[in-house]
Amino acid sequence: MSPNLRIAVRFLFAKKRSMLMSLAGIIFGVGFFISTQAQLSGYQELFINTILGTDGAIRIEDRIQDTNVFVSAPTSEGANTNFFVSDRENRRFVEGIEHPESVIEAAMQLQNVEAASPVIKGTIQLQSPLRKDSGQVFGINVDQHIAVSSLEDRIQIGSIAEFRAAPMGIIMGHKMASRLDVTVGDSVIVRAIDQQRRVTIVAIYETGVSEIDKTRVFMHMSATRSLLKKPHGVSFIQVSVFDRDHAIVDALAIENMALHFSAPWQEREKSWMQLFTTLKLSAAITVSTIIIVSGLGMFSTLFMIVMDKTREIAILRSMGYTRNDISNIFLWQGFIVLVCGAILGCGMGALITFGISKLPMPLSGIFATDYFVVRSTVWHYLQAVSAAVVIVMIASLAPARWASRLIPGDVIRGTAT
């Protein structure tokens, strides 16, 4: 152990009670910082997985009809050249996808695209023996759709196999089933335009998203075409990808190749992602106040140590210790508290995060879960420790500079300030 470090430890124990209070604040601040960020990140991850499982990473929709703008530009010879350019700001869209096979073929050329499923969507009325309700029908090809969604995993009653074997079967959300007072095996009448069909409920699902669970009904593609009188084309194509963070680039590529509007999940859920980012920033600022208060306590304690140890500092200066040596002694004190606080705080954060993940917390509405959802990453620990480093070192710097400026002669004469 170096002499400076040994002296720092002895000075530190001179105010051990005050330093322990500052150390406790840093431990709790770092621990709570890690646990709150893990909770918010966990719910954000659950929300993203829910969205990807219900609406896919990319949704290909209406055909793009570019509008051209007439431009006249002078040439170097003084004449004018007339030409048309595409006006992307005023593009027009033709509803639906007329040739889904060619669009899917274009999308599947991208390495990141995993699968694609055409879907026909329409508004319907459902009637059970007791009640009526409105909803949206999604006509799907079973095998293609379960490859791009988590529908099979979300089924609570019944199975995909039963749906596959029932040409006039439907899969209904649990909230709609509750409102219609029906269950698997019951029949309901589905109406759309001037058509109606009697269908059988073969499965009930729950995504946890209320708007989906109370409105969305899945039928076979052929039955939906007949019901909605749409013999050709589809409403949209749902696409799944291997790397979800690359969905924006893939969507733009699909749009340019297939000339159909493509919306990645990041743009569709932009407001929700901004909300999660705001909540994480707000939680980080709030929890960091614990570390700030601890830093102020350390600042005060170190100043008290400087005032109490002025004679010792004068003796050290007289023995040949430089200003930097004296400054380093007090910086070492801050560093010791920081290291202990960071290590113990990270351990506390890990324990809190683990404990919270075991607490029951039934939740549905935006997503469904039975327990607190946490997702802890190394980045959370780095953020917490970085906040502690900045605050503690700032709190240590001013007392260290003041101690280094003490002049031995002034201390002996009692005129040091």
What does this structure look like?
- This protein is α+β, with helices and mostly antiparallel strands and 417 residues long.
- It folds into 2 domains: 3-53 and 272-413, no CATH class; 56-67 and 91-268, no CATH class.
- The chain is built from 16 helices and 13 strands.
- The chain has helices at residues 3-14, 16-55, 100-107, 142-146, 151-154, 160-164, 174-180, 210-213, 221-228, 247-258, 265-268, 270-308, 310-318, 323-357, 378-404, 408-413, and strands at residues 58-74, 80-94, 113-127, 132-140, 155-158, 169-173, 187-192, 195-205, 216-220, 236-241, 260-264, 360-363, 369-371.
- The strands form 2 sheets. Strands 3-4-9-6-8-7 form a 6-stranded mixed beta barrel. A two-stranded antiparallel sheet has the order 12-13.
- Helix 2 (16-55) packs antiparallel against helix 15 and helix 3 packs across helix 10.
- It is elongated.
